[in-house]
Amino acid sequence: MLTKRIVPCLDIKNGRTVKGVNFVDLRDAGDPVVLAKQYADLGADELVFLDISATQEKRKTMHDMVLKVAEQVNIPFTVGGGISSVEDVDDLLHCGADKVSINSSAVKRPELINELSDKFGSQCIVVAIDAKKIGEEWIVHLAGGTIPTDLNLFDWAKEVEERGAGEILFTSMNHDGTKAGFANEALDKLSELVNIPIIASGGAGTIQHFADTFIEGKADAALAASVFHFGEIPIIELKEELKKQGIPVRI
Fold this sequence. Notes:
Strand content: 25-35%
Pfam families: His_biosynth
Catalytic activity: 5-[(5-phospho-1-deoxy-D-ribulos-1-ylimino)methylamino]-1-(5-phospho-beta-D-ribosyl)imidazole-4-carboxamide + L-glutamine = D-erythro-1-(imidazol-4-yl)glycerol 3-phosphate + 5-amino-1-(5-phospho-beta-D-ribosyl)imidazole-4-carboxamide + L-glutamate + H(+)
Low-confidence stretches: none
Protein name: Imidazole glycerol phosphate synthase subunit HisF
CATH topology: TIM Barrel
Subcellular location: Cytoplasm
CATH architecture: Alpha-Beta Barrel
Keywords: Amino-acid biosynthesis, Cytoplasm, Histidine biosynthesis, Lyase
Largest sheet: 8 strands, parallel, barrel
Order of helices and strands: EEEHEHEHEHHEEEHEHEHEHH
Oligomer: single chain
Distance between the termini: 15 Å
Number of helices: 10
């Protein structure tokens, strides 16, 4: 059985790591390069960096950060934010990123997934999906969760797989930052629907929440931010408890 992955996420704004609740009320969480090295040393399996800045210098800032992170860590890391072309991905991979994450650009032009997968291989193309449950339906949102679309989470997930995505990063906007647990029902449905790995995001608050998303949600990886950034859940303790519960992890 494949080991389950623990993935700290660093949201980057103006070169700093930030964290909010339900995508708003951001607070500073530290230097992303320093945090990246700490997480690699402490047993994280992978890292995800999402540039949420809208500033014009975003791309240069991201390139500089990726280069610095690549020098410091020996685990795979994914970079997302503002990526909309083959050239963007080529640049980031050359800077040292292992994978890229696309979101709004994929919704606006789904062919981009095909182009990137054909050029670089599906193994390094992650499609991030931010969705909010409205009534009984999960609706895909864009631009950091600010713009609702006409897309249903499950229909879109199936399409991105068919277009060549190698992995899906699903963030429940309803759960983001609440520390009340992951959206396991939706994750379970996703895992039944697609045959590529699913990264669960949004809602981690306790060690048991991670166990639940692997067991009930059938997630392949679990991503979290504030519980790691602010020292609430040490990664090694998390993994040791998961192992006790029979969940395969790398220690």
